[in-house]
Write a structure and sequence with these properties.
By secondary structure, this protein is an alpha+beta fold. The protein is built from 13 helices and 14 strands.
């Protein structure tokens, strides 16, 4: 970095002040081209701190001389006194050292366009002095909003991956959440959004994990169409949202063989890396840190959720489902089990005391199979289970619904109120 700065000083791009070496932006006719800056209209101190002696508000430090009265953790001797490199210098030096004098793509946050990346360009092109653009493409990611506040290092706020894991979220769920939006679009972070991303990723994994086999060496027309659509989406300015839509569509395509699905998963995951080739749906169910899970608590939450669903309070039901998931309990649309994150199964209670307790808490009454069910071949001997219904509920029992009928709200499940916790 000292050699880089010395070359800029030797070729006349810098001037010295008592507190360091400064880049003279007036010498760069293209300064600010990335951000389309109005250099002449800038005010001193509006973008960076005001420094006595600077020739222009946009001029920036290439090397900062240490103040003898300050105690700093890292200082180095240099031709301009003991000090440290300016904010932008190390980025230019590392990039050129490891990627070459010129490279294809430079990325960063939108908050770096006006100052950091603008100054990187200025000092790098001055150092290279070959008349070429230092980098061909600049990709800037937008902010993530947390309740209206941007998450960035400059604000000091944010959510760490460890925080997500402690709350029971697999890190790839967060990755999936981000991929649902284009990188140049802002995205709202919330725990509800994380729940939605986990549900969406789980559905994909259920299909791709079940199809894992030796990938096909060649793709049929349908599979090739999905791969072409995925390539087109990524080629469209890294449109990951559209790419995820393609992955979802392929997971629902019954024309694809398992070998083709496995081959597509390999291609999709090489770009997006969301676990399609090695993650199982159950891997998303992390036990929440610091939470002691008991069977009594699980049963209480299950009963409370059942009551909410009977009352058609689906917002509360969704919230309770999220609580169950955070405890490591997977709520499935099966009549016989709840699965705990540690591998244990929670079947519906079978002894009369436990059944009556759960029934009282859920506010339901047993409706034994009657003659009308037997006449339909659904009663005893016909394969039907006792039906549990809320008091004064005249809705059609689950067994009497038209085959194949579904409700659209995912939380209600297929063909019945108690899709995830049927008392049998």
């Amino acid at each position: 970095m000292i050699e880089f700065a010395a070359e800029l000083a030797r070729t006349g791009w810098c001037y010295t002040l008592p507190n360091g070496l400064y880049f003279d932006t007036a010498r760069d006719a293209d300064y600010g081209k990335l951000a389309l800056l109005d250099i002449e209209g800038q005010l001193e101190g509006a973008r960076v701190e005001s420094v006595a002696g600077k020739r222009r508000p946009a001029d920036f430090a290439v090397w900062r001389t240490a103040d003898p009265a300050e105690q700093r953790q890292m200082d180095w001797d240099s031709p301009w006194g003991r000090g440290a490199p300016g904010w932008h210098l190390e980025c230019s030096v590392m990039s050129i050292e490891h990627l070459g004098r010129h490279f294809d793509i430079h990325t960063g946050g939108v908050d770096h366009i006006a100052i950091h990346h603008t100054n990187e360009i200025a000092q790098s092109e001055a150092y290279l002095a070959d008349g070429q653009d230092w980098v061909d493409w600049w990709l800037h990611g937008e902010f993530i909003n947390l309740r209206g506040a941007k998450i960035s290092k400059s604000t000091g706020g944010g959510v760490l991956v460890d925080d997500l894991v402690d709350r029971g979220y697999h890190p790839l769920v967060y990755r999936y959440l981000l991929l649902q939006a284009h990188y140049r679009s802002q995205i709202e972070f919330s725990w509800h959004a994380m729940d939605g991303a986990r549900t969406a990723l789980r559905r994909l994994l259920e299909r791709y994990a079940s199809a894992r086999t030796q990938p096909a060496s060649s793709l049929g027309n349908a599979a090739q169409d999905h791969l072409d659509a995925f390539d087109a989406a990524i080629s469209d300015d890294l449109n990951t949202a559209k790419a995820l839509a393609v992955i979802t569509a392929s997971s629902r395509d019954n024309a694809l063989t398992d070998a083709e699905v496995s081959a597509l998963a390999r291609e999709f995951d090489a770009v997006l890396a969301v676990g399609l080739i090695d993650l199982a749906p159950g891997d998303l169910d992390l036990k929440r840190a610091g939470v002691d899970v008991t069977e009594e608590r699980v049963e209480a939450l299950m009963a409370e959720r059942m009551t909410a669903r009977l009352a058609k309070d689906f917002a509360k039901s969704d919230d309770l489902r999220g609580q169950l998931v955070s405890l490591g309990v997977t709520s499935r649309t099966k009549p016989t089990e709840h699965h705990h994150g540690d591998g244990r199964d929670y079947p519906p209670p079978t002894d009369s005391t436990a059944r009556e307790s759960l029934v009282r808490r859920a506010g339901v009454t047993e409706r034994p199979p009657g003659a009308e069910l037997a006449s339909r071949g659904l009663g005893p001997g016909g394969g039907a289970r006792p039906v549990w219904r809320r008091r004064n509920d005249d809705r059609v029992p689950q067994e009497e619904r038209r085959p194949g009928s579904r409700r659209r709200n995912d939380d209600r499940g297929p063909q019945g109120v108690f899709s995830d916790c049927v008392l049998a």
